[in-house]
Amino acid sequence: MLQPYRDVLTRPGALAFSGAGVLARLPMSMVGIGIVLMVSTLYGSYGLAGRVSAVYVIAQALCSPQLARLVDRHGQSRIMRPAVAIAAVGLVGLVVAATTEAHEVWLYAAAVVTGAGIGSFGSLVRARWARVLGADPHRMHTAYSLESALDELVFIVGPVLATLLATGVAPTAGLIVPLVAMLVGGYWFLSLRRTEPPPAPVGSPRPKGSVLRRPGMVVLAIVFVAMGSIFGATDVATVAFAEESGSKGAAGIILAIFALGSLISGLLYGTRTWKRPLYLRFATGMVALAVGVCFFFLVQSLVALAAVMFVAGFAIAPTLINGNGLVQDLVPRERLTEGLTWVGTSLGVGVSVGSSVAGAQIDIHGSHAGFLVVVISAGAAVLATLAALRTLRGDGSDHVHNSVEAESPSATGGAAVAACEVAESVEPKRS
């Protein structure tokens, strides 16, 4: 089962940049929940915690695509080295402002600086895979599946670590580790120049407009905003539910279980080739995720919530993998970093909206009001996906479908099959 992953990781330089990318991405799973835990503890307000987290993510959403355009134009190391330093300064300022219980405007200011420079290392890693593997669709599918699984590994370790540090050491401790990881992992990654995609040739025309001018990219952006709202509201609601249940420290463990389900499905998904078109698999995963999170609103205990999250998590990684795969078909190769960043940025915007709205509702009505925001966000994601199927089909499905017909397709195992049950015509892949 692991042979496809061994194949891509043995490419020169692949293991190094993928490993460094994991460390550099640790902040994406720790900063959000670290802000919520720190601010809610020191200021006594989930609403404020959600707003500060939202400001951070919005700043990242606005600035990351611009950083990505500069990266495509001038190279990863030249742009991201100073950007990482700026993000580190902002994160230090956020910790200092919270520790001194400064006016909330200083929290917002520090969050803006952090979000403006942090960028999207997941997009940088995926762009390197495109350079190393070229146009091989099967190996790119495996590489993207690997990175999505590693994303989930980050989301397993990150929330638990942030929660343990914030509740067991100090409220601000949950932001210290991501600060160190960003500096060490980020500069390690950027030092690996051999696998860095080349910048645009000197004198080449500057790209005009945004990749969002492509209808398929607009669709993906809208869907990923709604999907991000699911995740943002889930984070805040889970922390509040755990506190109401008398065990706030369990929130990180429960969120890690959510990510564990996604990690397992992502690894299984990446070992197989699928017969169904990519746009249909993307839609199926989105529907499966929406059905799964609807049960969050019904749970009455931490154990039940963990169980539901584990099963629902199986729909996450395949959906994200398929979304990133659609981007590769929708944008020119020389603008791949920008396209991938817009997907991640849209997800981040949704996280900010979901966490902010859920935080405000939780302050008034309790944790289940936050889970209601999750359900509403899931419904919006499904509606947007189904309404835009024709657009996605016209933009990218033919290329993807033809690229996988040469080999015998296969379903994934376990609950990942349930997440993509409509892909009924599948057989085991033969080596």
UniProtKB/TrEMBL annotation:
Membrane topology listed for this record: Multi-pass membrane protein
PROSITE patterns in the cross-refs: MFS
InterPro entries reported in the protein's UniProt record: MFS, MFS_dom, MFS_trans_sf
Segments crossing the lipid bilayer: 12-37, 83-100, 106-127, 172-190, 211-231, 251-271, 278-298, 304-327, 339-362, 368-389
Name of protein: MFS family permease
Subcellular location, record wording: Cell membrane
Pfam families xrefs: MFS_1
Main location as per UniProt: membrane
Domain (Major facilitator superfamily (MFS) profile) ranges: 216-431
Record flagged with keyword Membrane: yes
Organism: Cellulomonas humilata
